[in-house]
DNA sequence: TAATGCAGGTACCTTTTTGAAACTATTGAT
DNA sequence: ATCAATAGTTTCAAAAAGGTACCTGCATTA
């Protein structure tokens, strides 16, 4: 996580990356945007490679950032639900466009594997 | 950088984060989107906190990912220009929406500093 | 009485990332 | 002969991030 230089006007990109810059945060936010409400274990199953520790940690940071809401039910075994806060919902367009681009980029990757490795015109050296 | 599990269909988010997930990449891409063409030193000045090493490394990775084009002029002292490739340009909407959200989020942060620290309604414990 | 399910917490360790500082190459200007 | 300018690279060390394995609490169920 980037440290916020307190009392200095930070650029918008920094402000965004400060709260989104964990290894799993965008995944978590994406799934919450898609499913609305998810329990801890459901998120864990949706993101198989995340460890319990990391999932808990990233969720806590997202909660502290005001993007995710944590609702604890007073029952045993425990039940905790996560959802986007109103402010978290404002991320949906960003998440959508990122996801869309990822889709596009993945297509591009797949396409490049089959084309012959010709030198792209952009690699040529320019002489002034 | 996340490792791409070769020959396994990766989700779009992973595909995107694989190439965008460096500490400085989004900054670099943003500035290139904004300015069109930038030399190494210009980028360095635009992002004061990045070190030479990191800037060079992230640029190299962006180039390898096909998002950034590197043009070397055969002159001394060296002159190298960076710009977005066509594929890199497809990121512009993503960068724009991220930047816009960052702007919004920064406003929110500023607003919270002055409001009294009341317990948000979302913090209440639910009982089923 | 013991095991089960859920949502974590924690200590310890390894890996990855990042930073600081010095070094390189080349040529024209002083 | 030396310096300046640009775009890096290299080495070593520090810091951050991440993973593993194990621990907790407690009502319910077998």
CATH superfamily of chain A: Winged helix-like DNA-binding domain superfamily/Winged helix DNA-binding domain
CATH C-level of chain A: Mainly Alpha
| Biggest chain pair interface | A-B, 46 and 46 residues
Overall pLDDT of chain A:
86
Class of secondary structure makeup of chain A: mainly alpha
Note the overall shape of chain A.
globular
Distance between the termini of chain A: 42 Å
Number of domains of chain A: 1
Helix-residue proportion of chain A: 40-55%
Number of strands of chain A: 3
Q: How many helical stretches of chain A?
A: 6
Write down the Rg of chain A. Answer: 20 Å
Helix-strand pattern of chain A, N to C?
HHEHHEEHH
What fraction of the residues of chain A are assigned to beta strands by DSSP? Answer: 5-15%
Identify the quaternary structure here.
homodimer
Main sheet properties of chain A = 3 strands, antiparallel
Within the CATH hierarchy, at the fold level, what is the topology of chain A? Answer: Arc Repressor Mutant, subunit A
The second-level CATH architecture of chain A is Orthogonal Bundle
Low-confidence runs of at least 5 consecutive residues of chain A: 1-7, 116-128
Strand order of the largest sheet of chain A: 1-3-2
């Amino acid at each position: 996580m980037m440290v916020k230089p307190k009392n200095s006007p930070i650029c918008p990109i920094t402000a965004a990356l400060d709260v989104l810059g964990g290894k799993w945060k965008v995944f978590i936010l994406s799934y919450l945007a898609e499913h609305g409400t998810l329990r801890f274990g459901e998120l864990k199953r949706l993101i198989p490679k995340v460890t319990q520790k990391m999932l808990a940690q990233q969720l806590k940071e997202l909660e502290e950032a005001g993007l995710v809401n944590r609702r604890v039910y007073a029952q045993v075994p425990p039940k905790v639900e996560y959802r986007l806060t109103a402010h978290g919902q404002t991320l949906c367009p960003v998440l959508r466009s990122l996801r869309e681009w990822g889709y596009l980029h993945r297509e591009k990757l797949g396409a490049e594997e089959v084309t012959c490795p010709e030198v792209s015109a952009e690699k040529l050296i320019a002489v002034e």
